[in-house]
Amino acid sequence: MPLGERYGGDKSESRYCGIETEFDDDMPNLLSYNVHGGFDFVLATLMDPKYRPSLVDIDTSRSTALPFAGSDLVLSPSQWSSHVVGKISSWIDLDSEDEILRQDSEITLKQEIAWASHLSLQACILPTPKGSSCANYARCLNQILQNLGGMQLWLRIPMVKPEDGIEAGNPEYMREGDVDSWELWNSFRLLCEHHSQLSVAIDIWSSVPSAASVARWYGEPVRAAIINTNSFLTNAKGYPCLSKRHQRLITAFFDHSVQVVISGQPVHKVPVATSASNVDTQNEGGWRHPLKAYLDYVAFLYQKMDPLPEQERFELGYRDYLQSPLQPLMDNLEAQTYEIFEKDTVKYSQYQRAVAKALVDRVPDEDASRVTTVLMVVGAGRGPLVRASLQAAEETERKLKVYAVEKNPNAVVTLHSLVKLEGWEQTVTIISSDMRDWDAPEKADILVSELLGSFGDNELSPECLDGAQRFLKEDGISIPSSYTSFIQPVTACKLYNDIKSHKDLVHFETPYVVKLHRVARLANTQPVFTFTHPEHSDKPSNQRYKKLQFDIPEDTGATLIHGFAGYFDATLYKDVHLGIEPSTATPNMFSWFPIFFPLRAPVYVKPGTPLEVHFWRCCGSTKVWYEWSVTAPSASPLHNTNGRSYWVGL
Ligand SMILES: C[S@@+](CC[C@H](N)C(=O)[O-])C[C@H]1O[C@@H](n2cnc3c(N)ncnc32)[C@H](O)[C@@H]1O
C-alpha cells in the first residue's frame, strides 16, 4: 500500500515516490499516466482551480451539492485511497484581509476536505499559510479536525531559515520579514494543540539550511518531502542529481519513513544512454515519463543506503514505542526478560574483562595458585555473570569461590540446574535471598552486580548495593565501581502525542523506556547523578539534586522541547566501562534503550536563550522517585511531586 507507514530502513526494491500534478479533470488518465511512468501516487488537485464559491450562484448555507469536482466513480475506492493524495486548492487564504477571499477559502477548504474524506483518501496536503498570521486558518482546521475520521492532513511548509536560505529561496513563499519556516509550523500546531492527524509536508528547495536547523525536523511529524526539479543539479553525464547536503537530508528522511514527492517541470535534457547510477529505464514501447530521471535518482539514493544492522532490524518494532521501566526489585522478572538480557554478549564480555582485571590486581601472579578470591554476584538472575566471572578466573588462572545471591525464587531454580549442568558445585554457592537481608558467612573480595536501569540508578542499584556493602571487605572491589546518569533536551512530537492521548496527569509524570527514533536531540548530554561503590562517606545519602543549563546551538533556530532523553554510563572497573550515553555508548550492546522524561507542556526555546532544568532523586521509606522541572526560559510545573505518578518500590 503506497501511502501506508513503512518501517524506516526497509530495504525493498525502491522507496515509494509520488508526483505533484497539475489539475486535470480526467483523473483516470492522470493516474494511469503517472503510475505507468513509475510513480506510486499522485499529489492531485481535487477541484477545478477556477472554482470560487462566491462566483457560483447557489445558496451554500443549504449545503446544495456543487459541481466542483469529478465523480467519485472514475476510480475504484482502493485506487483513490492508495494512489491519490488530495491537494487542497493553493489559492485559499484564510487569513486574508479580503473578506470575500477569506470566506471563499473557508468554504472551499471544508468542501474539499469533505470530498477527500468521502473518497477515503489517506491524506490531503494543505497549502502553506500565506502570511505570518495563521489564526483563522488554524481555527477552521481545528473545526475540521474535530470530525475528520481517519484522514491525515499534511501542512505544506517550505524548509527555509532566513539567514541561510533566503537568497536561494523560492519567491513564491518568500515575503518581507520572512521567518524561520519552523516557526510557522510551530505556531500552527500549537493553535491546533499538537493534533495527531496534523503533520508536515516539507518543500525542499535548492538551498538546504544548516545541519542543526534541519535536524529539528527529525522530531516533527514530517510525512512527505517535496523536491522541486529546480533543486536538482546536473551530473557529468547530464542526469539530475542532488547536492551532498540534499542527499544527506533525503537519506535521513527515508530513515524516518518520509515519502518523497517530485514536483515541477523537467529541467534536464536527459541523454538516452544508461549509466550505473542512473539507470534510464524506458517503459514498453520506448515511452518514458518526463520526470523518470528524477524518480530514478531518488530510487538510486534509496538503494545506496547502508542496510540496517541485524540488531537495528530487530529493534524496528520498538522505535518510539513507550514502555514502563522494569521494577526488578519490587517485581520478579519473567523468563523471557532474562532471555533477552542473556542474548547481549557484549554486556557480559565487558563484565568478564572487568572481573579479569580486578582478579589480576587483587592477586599477583606469584600468589595465583595459593590465594582464592571470594566473589559474590549479587542479583545473579539465571547466572550469566557467574559464568562471566568463572571465565575471567580461567582466563587469568586465578582461583575463585563464588556466591550467587538472587531474590527471585524462579531464577534461583534455573541457577541450581545451571550449576549442576556445568559441574560448578565445588565453586558456586547459591543463596536464595534479598542481598539486603542476607547474613553472609564470610566477606567478599569482589562484589559483582548489574542492577542498572536506562538512567543508571533508576532500578535502585544504590539502595541494593548499600545493603550488600556490609559483606564486602574494607578494601574490596565493587563492579561496577560507579555509574552516572545523563540527560539532553529533545523534540519528540510522536512521544508527546502518545502520552497526551491518555488524557491524564499520571502519564505526563512517568519516565518511559523507549527506543528513540523520531526525535531531535537538541544539545549535548550533561551528567546528572553519580553513585560510587563502595560508598565510604560518613553520611551516605542517595537523595540527589542537580540544576543544569543547556545552550541550544544558535544555528539550530527556535525549538520546542517535549522532554528529556536520559542515558547512563557505568565504570565497571578502571578503564572498562559500559553504557548508552550516545557519545561513549558501548558498541553493539542492546540491553538498554534510553529513558524519556516528558514535560506536561512543551517548552519553546529561542536561539541564544538557555534552558534551565532541575532534577531531583527523592528517597522515602518504601519508594524512590524523580521530580523534575524547567525554570527557564519559562517555568513548567514541578513534575511528579512526592512521586504521586511514578515511583520505584524498595
Ligand atoms: C537486571 S537483572 C540482571 C540479572 C543477571 N545478573 C544478568 O546480568 O543477566 C537484576 C537481577 O537482580 C535481582 N535483584 C534485584 N534486587 C535484588 C536484591 N535486592 N537482592 C537480590 N537480588 C536482587 C533481580 O531479581 C534480577 O534477577
From TrEMBL:
Alphabetical UniProt keywords: Cytoplasm, Methyltransferase, S-adenosyl-L-methionine, Transferase
InterPro entries: Arg_MeTrfase, Arg_MeTrfase_PRMT5, PRMT5, PRMT5_C, PRMT5_TIM, SAM-dependent_MTases_sf
Residues that hold S-adenosyl-L-methionine according to the record: 338, 347-348, 406, 434-435
Keyword Phosphoprotein belongs to the record: no
Limits of the PRMT5 arginine-N-methyltransferase domain: 310-479
Chain positions of site Critical for specifying symmetric addition of methyl groups: 341
Localization terms from the record: Cytoplasm
GO molecular function term, any single one: protein methyltransferase activity
Annotated PRMT5 TIM barrel domain residues: 38-304
GO biological process: methylation
Gene Ontology CC: one annotated term: cytoplasm
Active site feature: 450 (proton donor/acceptor), 459 (proton donor/acceptor)
Domain of life the protein comes from: Eukaryota
Pfam families named among the record's database cross-references: PRMT5, PRMT5_C, PRMT5_TIM
Every PRMT5 oligomerisation domain range: 482-648
Main localization (coarse): cytoplasm
Family, similarity comment: Belongs to the class I-like SAM-binding methyltransferase superfamily.
Protein name, as recorded: Protein arginine N-methyltransferase
